[in-house]
Amino acid sequence: MIHRRRICRVEDVYIVMDGVLGGLGSRNATLRWRLGGEDWVQVADGLRGRVGREDFRVLLLGPSAATKLIVGQESPPEGWESRYYGEKKASPLLLVRAEGVSATAWFVSVFGPAEQVERCSGIRRFDAIDPEGKLVLAQCPEAPWLSQLGELTEGNITYE
Question: Residue 54: pLDDT above 60?
Answer without folding.
Answer: yes
